[in-house]
Amino acid sequence: MLAFAPLHTAASAAATVVTWLAGTIAPLTGGAATAAAIVLFTVGVRLLISPLSLAQVRGERRRAALTPEVRDLQRRYADDPGRLQSELFALYRRAGASPVAGCLPALLQAPFFLVMYRLFATGDGHPQLLHEKLAGVPLGWHLGDGLTGPVVAVFGVLLAALLVLAWWSSRRARRAATATGTIAGAPTEGPGAAVLGRLVPLLPFTTVLVALVVPLAAVLYLVTTTAWTVLEQAVLRRPQPEGIDAR
């Protein structure tokens, strides 16, 4: 149990924040105060990591600017995948465009999602949160916990929202791969590249699969953070006027 002490501490801290937010906005949101507090909590998390998201977009723009050089290397080393990989990473390194930096925002969200899951799956010292509701459905319930009208309606709306957001993200990933000549920071040539090309655009849909097995509170977190990502991508990746430096 000692191994889970940090997680328990984090869940307790998150419960304190969510409870305080719910109490603060209760006059405006009524019975949906805790659900609204989860949304605000998620927005707070995303604001904390927004500098990394901005750095990610800048890195992608740098990689996009390198597209002609990438394609030239792909032609020159088409028969030598190992040399191609090494030359591409050297090119990215010289340009300050790390191929792995784009993973950081997603990785840093994982602990917050885990905390939210634990808090509303087990109560983790705050069992009252399990009984807070959204449209009559307890936030600690899963999709299979009684397929009544309200459960189907609430989960159905949230799952539909996730599907739309996943579709948009998948389309953007395909366009970005075409524009930059890379897939998630990796070359489009070489062993396994074709498989990656098919799998990466499907990754956004994993949020829908996760939502099928986690509590309603965690689904709210997923919908909010995914919607934030879509909005963030639309704003940060909007076309820039000529002459604007990607740095």
UniProtKB/TrEMBL annotation:
Q: Which GO terms describe its cellular component?
A: plasma membrane
**Which PANTHER family does this one have?**
CYTOCHROME C OXIDASE ASSEMBLY PROTEIN COX18, MITOCHONDRIAL (PTHR12428:SF65), OXA1 (PTHR12428)
Q: What does this protein do?
A: Required for the insertion and/or proper folding and/or complex formation of integral membrane proteins into the membrane. Involved in integration of membrane proteins that insert both dependently and independently of the Sec translocase complex, as well as at least some lipoproteins. Aids folding of multispanning membrane proteins.
| Membrane topology type | Multi-pass membrane protein
Q: Where is the Membrane insertase YidC/Oxa/ALB C-terminal domain?
A: 36-237
An annotated GO BP: protein insertion into membrane
Listed under subunit, the entry gives:
Interacts with the Sec translocase complex via SecD. Specifically interacts with transmembrane segments of nascent integral membrane proteins during membrane integration.
Q: Which residues cross the membrane?
A: 25-49, 100-120, 147-168, 202-223
This chain belongs to which protein, by name?
Membrane protein insertase YidC
Assign the protein's first listed, main location to one coarse class: membrane
Cross-referenced Pfam families, in alphabetical order?
Answer: 60KD_IMP
User: According to its UniProt record, where is this protein located?
Assistant: Membrane
Q: Which family does it belong to?
A: Belongs to the OXA1/ALB3/YidC family. Type 1 subfamily.
The protein's UniProt keywords, in alphabetical order, are:
Membrane, Transmembrane, Transmembrane helix
One term of GO molecular function: membrane insertase activity
Give the source species.
Micromonospora chaiyaphumensis
